[in-house]
């Protein structure tokens, strides 16, 4: 496209529309959008919104101007060059690079102009998609286009949250219809018990990655169907299940219809687990294998990321509901009894009282599973342990990739840089705070006025100060996040804020789910507090926490506070957004902060242990929160050198910016996913698929044989003795009908204080089984008393992931 000239206004208009639709605009382009509509551009910084709302007459005038068309051509050429530029992914060894990774998520937070997100989960999906584009990792993403998205928030005069559902007019969103080969709008048909429903498809350009969004708002559908994709996280279990059917089943079908051949399918949370089921259904038909065999292939190429730290966070459906919606699909499409399918979502297959758990389904259709921080990996191993009975918790097959944020999205372009000297870095920080304070005053002050039966009622507009230590606290008002911990002693907080020599100001934001009355009451408490005489102008609660507001906050505040109840913050990402901007973190040792914190980079709350919902712990942590703010934090911020620079504070800023920004970036997270998950998953998927899926057939048969014969396995004799400083183990195992190569004998010791768990392979004396028994022997120097060891038999197959795909185990004791 370089050297392109745009001769006509029409051509230029088309190219301009394409540019505006592409999320991921660069600062170089600001002048272009500013020319189109300076007011809307300044308000939204969003090309598509600016173009969609600008005056047609004005735009036509611009397009008639050859110089302006030249500017468009130049930008289009730059975008094209960026699209073609190699990324990190291109540097990976050729044979290893997966050709296509399909990414499924219920929500995406990409831009405030595309409000189809609620919070953290969408943030992870959106930021990782942008990073994948930057790195040129070939990700194609799938989600839903919600007509109303998540609710928008406003407050009543008495500080109650009100939920609003403005309509997302698709013509005003940066999306366009997906067209088929004839140029017609692609429609997917999905057969459900009540008949055929129509699903529409849209596409969003995110840098060089494409996100496909599905919706059911086709006028040909009955009203109940049209409403499936109206709200994110609204409605009942039935609605959620139907959304997940559309996301997973129709989403996978769309990719097939468009000719994608994903080797890896990444499930961002269990919502999309049906994508892997649909994938297996398609493979079953194509290869003429059974569903179990097809699943052996599909799951090898499926990665499941779990995001919750509590069992209540998993979607659970009444089995009747699942059967109601999916019976025909399962019977006809999977050639499987419904009960057998429902068992995939249960801990105990035959337990009819047990609901259908989407996380259980997800782990059973995946070849790799991960949590989103080191601590959350550990917590998830405990949550998923019931599916691996008698396996040590440390061996439950859940790893972790700590989340990260897309730095270019959250960092202010004119921020300070860690390589600058103290005074310069500090002056940038002060400038950012000043802009922030002004922005809050300009944009959000009017929201303090209400019109009610008593006419117009305005609360005093609090003007924050540009030179005061500014604290930020914004998140979902869910009780595990303890958004009221800072309010434990309101008078003490008020004194802290109004301190005559070391004052502070606090900016808050956050929504509580419309069904969460407790969370809503906490918001009302904060609003009441912000209206107290003695804190006026020192506390602001901003309405409608969204991506734009988050960006303003993380760029402006000095200190980001987070007070979750450990270990329920799976990762948390908002604190990462302040890093590049020079903000510091003061947070509970939970989620990412548990691995990021050192005293050089910020402050920590809590003792790094779990205490449940213990009121005494809450009280002690509130005390520590106040104390730290009153002493160390106020001290560091207000201790100035002769040039009025807080050197200790700036030192922390520099350490936090340099060491944490790259480590907690989405770029690092996507690199981790690629090298540790996508590449091995793609390789395993290909091995199972190649050659008419012979390996998958063999593996399915192997697994069935183990399931049938594992019960025959016995320890015939175990002998141990110590000689010459070595421990000698000799074990005879009765294999029954199993073969020598099917199992492995291991010497195992539990983790103890000061000692890790140990697993030592004990070799068989011969490869052949004589009269159904096999003898194993090993002489080994043990690291601890022999009495701490026991022996066990586990499945073994070089191509099977144990225990994920074969969870059998036999212990000596
Ligand atoms: C970053 C972000 C979140 C996630 O923040 P947590 O740290 O997980 O609380 C939620 N909502 C918005 C609008 C965000 O920008």
Automatic annotation (TrEMBL):
Residues 28-114 form the DUF3417 domain. One of its GO terms (molecular function) is glycogen phosphorylase activity. InterPro entries: Agluc_phsphrylas (IPR011834), Glyco_trans_35 (IPR000811), Glycogen/Maltodextrin_Phosph (IPR052182), Glycogen_phosphorylase_DUF3417 (IPR024517). It catalyses: [(1->4)-alpha-D-glucosyl](n) + phosphate = [(1->4)-alpha-D-glucosyl](n-1) + alpha-D-glucose 1-phosphate. Keywords: Allosteric enzyme, Pyridoxal phosphate. The modification N6-(pyridoxal phosphate)lysine is found at residue 577. GO terms for biological process: carbohydrate metabolic process. SUPFAM superfamilies: UDP-Glycosyltransferase/glycogen phosphorylase (SSF53756). It comes from the Bacteria. The keyword rRNA-binding does not apply. Belongs to the glycogen phosphorylase family. This is Alpha-glucan phosphorylase.
